[in-house]
Design brief:
Structural class of chain A: mainly alpha
Largest sheet of chain A: 2 strands, antiparallel
CATH class of chain B: Mainly Alpha
Strand content of chain A: under 5%
Number of strands of chain B: 0
Radius of gyration of chain B: 20 Å
Largest interface: A-B, 60 and 54 residues
Order of helices and strands of chain B: HHH
Distance between the termini of chain B: 53 Å
Largest sheet of chain B: none
Number of domains of chain B: 1
Number of domains of chain A: 1
CATH architecture of chain B: Orthogonal Bundle
Oligomer: heterodimer
Order of helices and strands of chain A: HHHHEHHHHHHE
Distance between the termini of chain A: 37 Å
Number of helices of chain B: 3
Shape of chain A: globular
Chain lengths: ~250, ~120
């Protein structure tokens, strides 16, 4: 299809969507109104299970099955990237790992911020049921934090710090642990992903039952997943190179 | 003025889709998809907003939990949305890398046939 035809089709369809969107939007409940029926139910259910972070309560307790689906998407796409970005037959690894010249200030900044970032990431994961954040957010912080080593210009050290195999396992173990806790809930109380552990102490570190544990499982999975993803992309950019020794 | 947030959301979805339709580069398409998806974040968060409400995170007692918070259900959905968007973006970028290796181009109009 030509670009013009495509654009004309889009203008027609996009215009229709825009008109219906405006018609729909003006009849929505007013912006900022106190009418939130889902919020009211989520509030009661979250407080009943002593979960101070209601978003985590929704994600890991009330709608845990959704989150299982979500992390399955994560697992599938990490697997997809690993398969797509593997070393091809006509490529080879080369030894030159230089990533160019790095400013001394950037290098120093990377070294100083790396441990702080990783620590903050673990903090965000472990307090996911109490404070803003959780396994997904903290996992991304940990996974990318390690890669500050690359920003500091030390690709070789980064490779030593995060060999990919354990993190491929971590990805699977995190996803498996989530599913296993779901099955445990099914066996003990008859509901998949039921919150089994007693949840006393609103706002305390040991509260909210399985929400904290599921947060941890997701944290492991996301941190490992981000680590594998970034490793694969960096490998494409730095390590792999098309073989030059003539035709195959 | 009260529908402003919703209109921004639909604007982002349409602007992102327009970018995909007019795209001459697959990396550009992937970024446009992210723009379109961020419209859904704005829509969800606008629906959950309540004037003068606090975030749905209570911290430690003694503060008694109050019902007057922004909607945690749509915020949890936004979180799901962001995660899925990020992982799908990674997968699409990996596909773009492969396409560039095999075809030597990233222009979607020049990609006519499948090649292994």
């Amino acid at each position: 299809m030509s670009r013009t035809a495509r654009t004309v089709m889009f203008a027609a369809a996009g215009g229709a969507v825009a008109v219906f969107a405006v018609l729909a939007v003006v009849r929505l409940p007013a912006f900022g109104s106190p009418y939130h029926p889902y919020r009211d139910h989520a509030f009661l259910a979250g407080v009943a299970h002593d979960t101070a972070n209601l978003v985590s309560s929704v994600n890991f307790d009330q709608r845990g099955l959704d989150t299982l689906g979500e992390e399955t998407i994560l697992l599938a796409s990490v697997m997809g990237v690993s398969v797509l970005l593997r070393r091809a037959e006509d490529e080879e690894e080369h030894d030159d790992r230089s990533v160019g010249w790095v400013l001394d200030a950037t290098r120093l900044g990377g070294y100083i911020i790396l441990p702080v970032t990783v620590l903050v990431g673990f903090d965000v994961i472990t307090h996911g049921h109490l404070t803003p954040g959780g396994g997904f957010q903290g996992g991304v912080v940990v996974g990318t934090g390690i890669h500050l080593m690359y920003v500091a210009g030390r690709y070789r050290s980064l490779e030593r710090m995060r060999p990919t195999t354990p993190f491929e396992w971590g990805e699977a173990v995190g996803a498996g642990a989530f599913a296993a806790m779901g099955v445990a809930g099914l066996l003990v109380s008859g509901a998949f992903l039921a919150n089994l552990i007693s949840y006393t102490g609103f706002g305390q570190l040991f509260s909210s039952g399985t929400v904290a544990l599921l947060n941890g499982a997701v944290g492991i999975e996301v941190a490992s997943g981000v680590m594998v993803l970034l490793a694969k992309f960096l490998e494409q950019a730095i390590v792999l190179r098309r073989r030059e020794d003539g035709e195959k | 003025m009260s529908v402003y947030g919703y209109l921004v959301a639909f604007w982002l979805v349409l602007a992102g889709s327009f970018g995909i339709v007019r795209s001459r580069d697959l990396i550009h398409s992937v970024v446009c998809l992210s723009v379109a998806q961020s419209g859904t974040y704005v829509l969800l968060l606008s629906i959950g907003f309540q004037t003068k409400a606090t975030p749905p995170v209570y911290g430690s007692p003694p503060s008694t939990p109050t019902r007057s918070v922004t909607d945690p259900v749509v915020q949890a959905m936004t979180l799901t949305d962001v995660v899925v968007s990020a992982t799908v973006t990674a997968l699409l970028l990996a596909m773009a890398v492969q396409i560039h290796k095999r075809h030597g181009t990233l222009d979607p109009d020049e990609l006519r046939a499948l090649r292994g």
